[in-house]
Amino acid sequence: MRVFSFVIQTELDVEKLQELVHTVSCFESDTLLSIKGRIVDMKSILGLCTVMPYSGDEIEVRTSGYDEEEAMLAIKRWFCL
């Protein structure tokens, strides 16, 4: 399992979250986002919209599975980290 925490630096909206879902859906690994005490599947647009991360929010991303390292790198690139 890979775990990474950071503060979101960009504004996100539903369209951006759809792009994120598309990015992580290319991987077999489980991808979870933890924010404000809630954990959601990053492959679920509905899940991400229920927690709607904003600029300045601290989040934790977890990837677990066959291609977890590649998934984490893609997520970091998506968030420009």
UniProtKB/TrEMBL annotation:
Stored InterPro entries: HPr-like, HPr-like_sf
Residue intervals of the HPr domain: 1-81
Pfam families: PTS-HPr
The protein, known as: HPr family phosphocarrier protein
Provenance organism: Ectobacillus funiculus
